[in-house]
Amino acid sequence: xxxxxxxxxxxxxxxxxxxxxxxxxxxxxxxxxxxxxxxxxxxxxxxxxxxxxxxxxxxxxxxxxxxxxxxxxxxx
Length: 76
What we know:
- By secondary structure, the protein is α+β, with helices and mostly antiparallel strands.
- Helices cover 33% and strands 16% of the residues.
- The chain has a domain at 23-74.
- The chain has helices spanning 28-37, 54-57, 64-74; strands at residues 17-22, 42-47.
């Protein structure tokens, strides 16, 4: 099976989407691609100095304030 999850990402709109990636992540291009394909509202947040796996457990790099603001703003 050949399935590319971003083909229909625009159908998620108008639900808010927050994409988070590290500026050194090998997967950064996938986040940027998803962001470009997504409808509004959307935001791409790039974490300086973070690689792909750093955002799993490097709590000093995980943007908790950004996540809290996103959820507080968009979950009602």
